[in-house]
Amino acid sequence: MLQITATELARKFKQMMNLVEFKGEELIIVRNNHQVARIIPGPATMTALEAMSDLYRTLPEDAGATWMKDSLEGAAADLTEVRDPWAS
């Protein structure tokens, strides 16, 4: 946790925001010798690829064995059938 004056924060704003975002540092803002604010890092973000990267671990061992065949059969069925997109 880093303590910084409001004046110093204003002068080094980009540097301080980089500390919060990339280093996970927490800032305490002080003005007139008392705390006025605390800046904490936001929640971690992930790309879809990162979020799905270990999905395979939740599947049974044999789940991927027929995946390609099943995918192709499903795609062919969808191409021959015309569906009403507004039907609920």
Per CATH, the class of the domain at 2-39 reads: Alpha Beta
Name given to the CATH architecture of the domain at 2-39: 3-Layer(aba) Sandwich
> For the largest beta sheet, what order do the strands appear in spatially?
1-2-3
Helix content: 40-55%
Rg from Cα: 26 Å
Question: If you average the pLDDT, what whole number results?
Answer: 84
The CATH topology of the domain at 2-39 turns out to be: YefM-like fold
Give the number of helices. 4
Sequence stretches where pLDDT stays below 50 over 5 or more residues: none
In terms of DSSP E residues, the strand content is 15-25%
N-to-C span: 54 Å
Provide a quick synopsis of the model.
This protein is an alpha+beta fold and 88 residues long. It has helices at 6-11, 13-23, 48-52, 67-80, and strands at residues 2-5, 27-31, 34-39.
Provide keyphrases for this structure.
elongated; single chain; 41% helix; YefM-like fold; 88 residues; three-stranded mixed β-sheet; alpha+beta; 4 helices
How would you portray this structure in words?
By secondary structure, this protein is an alpha+beta fold. The protein has a domain at 2-39: YefM-like fold (3-Layer(aba) Sandwich). It is 41% helix and 17% strand. The protein has 4 helices and 3 strands, in the order βααββαα. The protein has a 3-stranded mixed β-sheet. Strand 2 (27-31) and strand 3 form a beta hairpin. The longest helix has 14 residues, at 67-80.
